[in-house]
Specification:
The structure holds four protein chains of four kinds.
Chain A (H helix, E strand, L loop, with lengths): L3 E14 L3 E11 L2 E2 L4 E5 L6 H8 L7 E6 L2 E2 L5 H8 L2 E4 L3 H4 L6 H11 L6 H11 L16 H14 L4 E5 L7 H18 L2 E6 L2 H7 L2 E6 L2 E7 H6 L4 H9 L8
Parallel strand pairs in A: 4-9, 4-10, 7-8, 8-9
Antiparallel strand pairs in A: 1-2, 1-3, 1-5, 5-6, 10-11
Helix pairs in contact in A: 4-6, 5-6, 6-7
Chain B lengths: L1 E11 L2 E12 L5 E5 L6 H8 L7 E10 L2 E2 L5 H7 L4 E4 L3 H4 L6 H11 L7 H11 L16 H13 L5 E5 L7 H18 L2 E6 L2 H7 L2 E6 L2 E7 H6 L4 H8 L49 E2 L6 E2 L6 H12 L1
Parallel strand pairs in B: 3-8, 3-9, 6-7, 7-8
Antiparallel strand pairs in B: 1-2, 1-4, 4-5, 9-10, 10-12, 11-12
Helix pairs in contact in B: 5-6
Chain D lengths: L4 H28 L4 H11 L8 H10 L6 H13 L14 H36 L4 H14 L3 H15 L19 H38 L2 H8 L4 H18 L1 H18 L5 H10 L3 H29 L1 H7 L1
Helix pairs in contact in D: 1-13, 2-3, 5-6, 5-8, 5-11, 5-13, 6-8, 7-8, 7-11, 8-10, 8-11, 11-12, 11-13, 12-13
The chains are: A alpha/beta, B alpha/beta, C mainly alpha, D mainly alpha.
Chain lengths: 260, 327, 322, 334
């Protein structure tokens, strides 16, 4: 049983032009992906491929216009109100820009405490906060800090601690490292890997960067213009890409040892 | 271009904060010089100083930037203005914001040529030749910037910077925010243009893979000073500073598996609390006690053109190699 | 600078700290500081005026139209009232109307603006339409219409009708600001993140949005208070207020209606004009100063780390005009 | 030129909706005011010496207002039909002039004041703001801002009295009131035009002085972020001339200021109404004050409607122009 799977998931945006006309943009067409338990899979695509739309669909920030999303084999597409809230406790999302995803007016402690309170954590809050910070390799002294006092990598780690506080089963990471310095990326990626291994959380890693995605994922979906053009085992896709677009992506991946 | 002993920083409410410390470098003709460093290494400040576009609260304490025998920093505003866009040019980071959002591209090109007193008859030929360089169709001219994709806008910006055929160009993170394929295409174009027109380019980026891919010579910045510089091949194969070595090691690459030894520890330097001794020692894997006392000077390796600023070269390098063999 | 302030704030969690720290921020701006000092002086003047008014401001007990003298610092009116007593005693109601309109008007603007910014597209369109109608209709017309509606009721209700009229005509400016600012903040990732962890809308509004737009709220308060003061003089000038009350607006009304400017009784017309101008000026300075605090690109100093600076500012850097 | 049809359509729809709202409000409001306007008017006429009017006139008056025992929707229908025929009822204060006739004569004067004062203060204020913004944080900027704030802190009518006192009463440079001299012949001739301009100077000057500050401060705060923007620094880096750079910043900053027009037109009309009463200028404002004093409801209603329509039309024009100027707005609404 897959923990999360989609069936012909589609999303069409309708932009209104005043009262009469409306224009449709198909952002996603018949997406079928599945995520097994304790798995870390990757979704790769250039901007405009619809990968961010997919992420937002999976956490109910958008509603699909066609197809279904199954969580533990239960169709959640029709969920409303309370059910959505309940579902969101199981699935969390990491945003691209850690400068924007933390509230500048609140401390690190607040960011981790709120989800704990909201998910009615019964243990000792203080201990739990320290525990979560420890999980993302930050020490207690960071509790009182504000986002602007942290570096990009630290912010992203605080954000990860915030999502973990909800105790999700699935994590959707939308470009979690593309705004960070190259030197920090590995750190966040190992963290993702550790979250998968130690906490048993299934992760979908969404990115345009084949370098990082090939390092930590077991399976890949390659997206292009709202469709999945290739999927399968990461190693075999990297070594024997069958789709033309995938080949181009691989060729364009930056590499210091390859002259431009 | 020659840069001598630049000291620059920012005025703040808590006083002056020094960023660039005694930075000197020479840019040879007809090459791409890459300047690399993490965010907060002072590389953007350096870019602004090189172009003399460093503005308050930024202040330049001392130093000179010699371009074609003249000091850019001492030039009269009008002289400098005439130079810009014609002799020396700048391609900024965020192309989406670099174009005036409420003017058609064509008019922005016209403005550029009016600013430099180009004859009206030459307008169209100049525009079409520079668009050709960046492989854009002429119909983009009648669009507003927001109607174009990010990659196209970046190309327009490049075309505009090259419009009056300058020979010296500074690129400040020109491909940030673009996705890999577009980035790759644009870099290929830049390289091609540089080769065909014989341009001198200073390429500034935090993205090491790209930087090493495109540059002929490289300057590594850390904490507002140069820690290593030299030919790209030398730096890639035989880094003399642990910073370069650790950064290169931390680059994610297709086909490799992740491994915790790749992690670069610590965070970029905070200009308010600069460590004693070698700036890099708190993050260095090879630091010894003396590193926290002695601030190393810039030294030459045997290769002459290869400069480094480390107390422990070449010992650490040997250790690193042994380690690599051991594991 | 921002960093330091934040640290100070978290060190002082006492009530005193909560009052003093925003004040420190306010006083860090020169214009706001000047405005604040003027306002405090006026408030003191108003409080003292309630107790130490030399004569009864409403009694017609002196010789008519006397120029200033020791006994009557600012002379007397054509009805034989002491002008200085009126000015002194009338300060409190004038300030009270300004502040009441400022506070209540801002509260309404926040409620309407934020709910529009957070509501569905349709509701948003409707509320925006209503805001625009109130913005476009000239305030004087509304003051006249509502004023004449209340005309018979003034005696029993004190300043309530006046305040009500001014709130009705003055809330829309702020609502527009808050609507656009909320719209831009509600799309930010940190709000989406709160939705994802299960925060309710109200909680997001009170815990995050209000805090993010706090400088704008303060700035808007001063703006609305300014409108309230200006509006009071309008209400009185147009004769739709209660003219038996003593405040700077009614003083002007009587002075103008008795053509004090023609008869050379400058001591009757100039002092209230002057005091109103000072009050308005202090509100404008505070409003403008707060704008600069909330929108640091208007300020002279920037924080050291360029990137960081951008991000912090980003959350407040909302063009208030749109 | 690309014509932003969709944008125009959207704005037109909004215009019609707001106009309809205002017309309806104008219908509802008098019915909310305590007492029957017809009776108020009737008793006023009797009190003011019109004792000979017959009680039947009360019914006639009631009919004029559309106030009858007829159901609300019938009244509303009648009101709309009357409006469509330009019938706004009969004034009380200027009995028996129809309201439409009074407005027809007063409106041009008010429009003259409004348009000329807005145009001048918009232009001058924005230029001042541009100057302050370009020299931001200097003493030039500070003095400009202080001047603007100081002018804005005067109640409009107080300033008007000061101006009137100095220029008309003391040094007698300008007339104290009226729209033109009684010695000239109204019509399209030069003495008349000169006289009109001469009489308009003081009111226009006062309105400009009070509204200048808002434009100045708004422009300053708009242009500074523009000067700091990436495309300005890019233009500088390409060697644009100083005037080109300032022009670009100014042009981009003036666009949001145009949307502020909605507010400003409303405020200016408020200002104009007050000034007209002080300078005895025969515009709508002068009649308005009289109408309020005499509780002349038909006239109040008529003025209200007229002013709102004028303001709405003004805004509508600005909105449409804005659509041509700023391509981003077009896209947002498309």
């Amino acid at each position: 049983m897959s923990i999360l799977r989609t069936e012909n998931l589609s999303k069409t945006f309708i932009s209104r032009h005043g009262i009469i006309a409306a224009e449709k943009t198909e952002a996603l067409k018949d997406i079928n992906i599945r995520l097994e338990e304790k798995e870390l899979i990757g979704i790769v695509g250039a901007s405009g491929s619809g990968k961010s739309t997919l992420a937002k669909l999976l956490v109910f920030l958008y509603r699909p216009t066609g197809g279904k999303i199954y969580y533990m084999d239960e169709d959640i597409t029709k969920y409303r109100g309370k059910d959505v809230k309940k579902y969101r406790k199981k699935i969390q999302m990491v945003f691209q820009d850690p400068y924007a995803s933390l509230d500048p007016n609140h401390s690190v402690e607040w960011h981790i405490k709120r989800p704990l309170i909201l998910s009615r954590y019964n243990g000792d809050l203080d201990n739990r906060i320290d525990e979560l910070l420890d999980m993302v390799t930050l020490n207690k002294s960071y509790r009182a800090k504000f986002p602007h006092q942290l570096s990009g990598g630290q912010r992203q780690r605080v954000y990860l601690a915030r999502t973990l506080a909800v105790s999700p089963e699935v994590l959707i990471a939308d470009e979690p490292v593309s705004m960070l310095d190259v030197s920090v990326r590995i750190e966040i990626l190992t963290l993702l890997q550790r979250i998968k291994e130690q906490l048993g959380i299934s992760i979908i890693y969404i990115t345009h960067d084949l370098n990082t995605v090939s390092m930590i994922t077991s399976r890949l979906y390659v997206m292009h213009q709202g469709m999945v053009v290739e999927n399968g085992d990461t190693d075999s896709i990297i070594n024997r890409p069958s789709n033309e677009y995938t080949r181009k992506l691989i060729a364009a991946a930056p590499n210091p040892y390859k002259r431009i | 271009m020659e840069v001598n002993h630049i000291n620059a920083g920012y005025e703040s409410e808590n006083g002056y904060i020094s960023v660039l410390k005694d930075v000197s470098l020479t840019v040879n003709r007809d090459i791409i010089l890459g300047i690399a460093g993490e965010s907060g290494s002072g590389k953007s400040t350096l870019a602004a100083v090189l172009y003399n576009s460093f503005r308050y609260p930024g202040t330049i304490r001392s130093g000179e930037v010699i371009f074609d025998g003249k000091n850019l920093l001492k030039m009269k505003p009008n002289e400098l203005r005439k130079l810009r866009g014609t002799e020396i040019s700048f391609i900024p980071q965020a192309a989406m914001n670099a174009l005036n959002p409420v003017k058609k591209i064509r008019l922005q090109f016209y403005d550029m040529m009016i600013a430099h007193n180009i004859k009206e008859n030459d307008f169209d030929s100049k525009i079409s030749s520079s668009l050709e360089l960046v492989r854009l169709q002429e119909n983009v001219l009648d669009n507003f910037p927001h109607e174009l994709s990010g990659g196209m806008r970046q190309r327009v910006v490049i075309a505009m910077s090259l419009l009056l055929s300058p020979k010296f160009i500074i690129l400040d993170e020109p491909t940030t925010g673009l996705d890999v394929m577009v980035e790759h295409d644009i870099l290929l174009d830049i390289k091609k243009i540089q080769r065909t027109l014989g341009l001198t380019i200073v390429f500034i980026s935090h993205d090491l893979p790209i930087l090493f891919g495109i540059s002929d010579a490289i300057v590594m910045m850390y904490g507002g000073e140069i820690v290593e510089s030299g030919d790209y091949e030398d730096l890639l194969r035989n880094p003399a500073h642990p910073y370069t070595y650790q950064l290169l090691k931390s680059i994610p690459l297709i086909g490799t598996k992740i491994d915790s030894s790749m992690i670069m520890k610590g965070i970029a330097i905070d200009f308010n609390h600069i460590p004693h001794g070698c700036y890099f020692h708190p993050r260095c894997n090879f630091a010894v006690p003396k590193c926290s006392d002695i601030h190393p000077e810039l030294k030459q390796t045997d290769g002459k053109t290869h400069l480094y600023r480390c107390n422990r070269y070449p010992e650490w390098s040997r250790n690193a190699k042994l380690e690599a063999i051991g594991t | 600078m921002k960093m330091e302030e934040q640290e100070v704030i978290k060190d002082n969690k006492s009530l005193l700290g909560k009052i003093i720290n925003p004040l420190k921020i306010l006083l860090s701006n020169g214009k706001a500081k000047a405005g604040f000092i003027m306002l405090v002086a006026l408030i003191l003047f108003a409080i003292l005026g309630q107790f130490f008014s030399p004569y009864n401001p409403t009694k017609y007990e002196f010789a008519r139209g006397m120029p200033p003298s020791y006994a009557h610092l600012l002379g007397t009116t054509i009805y034989g009232q002491d002008v200085f007593s009126q000015l002194f005693y009338g300060a409190a109601p004038t300030l009270m109307v300004g502040f009441a309109v400022g506070v209540l008007g801002t509260l309404i603007s926040i409620a309407v603006g934020i709910s529009a910014g957070f509501a569905s597209e349709r509701v948003n369109t409707v509320i925006t339409g209503i805001i625009n109608i109130f913005l476009i209709i000239p305030g004087v017309l509304l003051i006249m219409l509502f004023g004449s509606f209340f005309l018979g009721l003034h005696q029993s209700l004190g300043y309530l009708p006046t305040i009500l009229i001014l709130i009705i005509t003055g809330w829309a400016f702020g609502a527009r600001t808050f609507r656009s600012i909320t719209l831009s903040i509600a799309k930010r990732d940190f709000i989406l993140s709160s939705i994802l962890i299960g925060e309710s809308r109200l909680s997001i509004i009170f815990r995050q949005i209000i805090r993010a737009i706090f400088p704008v709220i303060i700035s808007n308060f001063f703006f609305t208070a300014m409108y309230g003061t200006m509006g009071l003089t309008f209400v009185e000038y147009l004769g739709v207020g209660n003219l038996l009350q003593v405040n700077w607006g009614t003083m002007l009304y009587w002075a103008i209606n008795n053509e004090a400017y023609l008869t050379g009784m400058w001591w009757w017309i100039l002092p209230p004009s002057f005091m109103i101008s000072i009050l308005m000026f202090s509100f404008i300075l505070l409003n403008f100063g707060m704008d600069e605090i909330g929108n640091p690109s208007l300020r002279r100093f920037k924080s050291k780390n360029k990137n960081e600076n951008k991000k912090i500012i980003g959350d407040l850097d909302v063009n208030i005009e749109n | 030129m690309i014509i932003p049809y969709k944008y125009i359509l959207k704005k037109t729809a909004a215009f019609v909706a707001v106009l309809y709202g205002a017309i309806t409000l104008n219908f509802i409001l008098p019915r909310l005011i305590p007492g029957d306007p017809a009776e108020t008017v009737y008793s006023t006429i009797i009190r003011e010496g019109g004792g000979s009017v017959s009680p039947r006139y009360l019914h006639q008056l009631a009919a004029e207002y559309g106030i009858s025992n007829a159901p609300m929707y019938v009244q509303y229908y009648n009101y709309l039909v009357d409006l469509a025929h330009g019938n706004l009822g009969i004034s009380v204060a200027f009995f028996p002039e129809p309201v439409s006739y009074i407005l027809y004569h007063a409106l041009p004067w008010t429009l003259l004041l409004v348009i000329s004062s807005i145009a001048i203060s918009f232009f001058v204020g924005n230029r001042m703001g541009r100057y302050a913004g370009i020299h931001r944080n200097s003493i030039k900027d500070l003095s400009m801002d202080m001047f603007a704030m100081f002018m804005a802190s005067f109640p409009a009518f107080v300033l008007a009295f000061i101006v009137l006192d100095i220029f008309a009463l003391d040094i007698k440079l300008f007339p104290i009131g009226g729209a033109y001299s009684i010695y000239v012949n109204p019509g399209f001739n030069i003495p008349f035009i000169i006289s009109v301009i001469y009489h308009a100077v003081l009111p226009v000057l006062t309105i400009i002085l009070t509204s200048l500050g808002g434009w100045e401060l708004g422009m300053r705060n708009n242009i500074i972020p523009n000067i700091n923007s990436d495309f300005i620094s890019y233009s500088e880096n390409l060697g644009f001339k100083k005037y080109q750079v300032n022009q670009i910043a100014y042009r981009n900053a003036i666009l949001p200021n145009l949307t502020g027009f909605a507010m400003s037109v409303g405020l200016s009309v408020s200002g104009v109404i007050i000034e007209e009463s002080i300078f005895s200028y025969p515009g709508v404002g002068l009649y308005m004050i009289t109408a309020i004093d005499d509780l002349d409801y038909p006239l109040i209603q008529g003025i209200f409607l007229m002013v709102i329509i004028a303001v709405l039309v003004g805004n509508f024009i600005v909105d449409i122009l804005y659509g041509f100027f700023d391509p981003r707005i077009r896209q947002e609404s498309e």
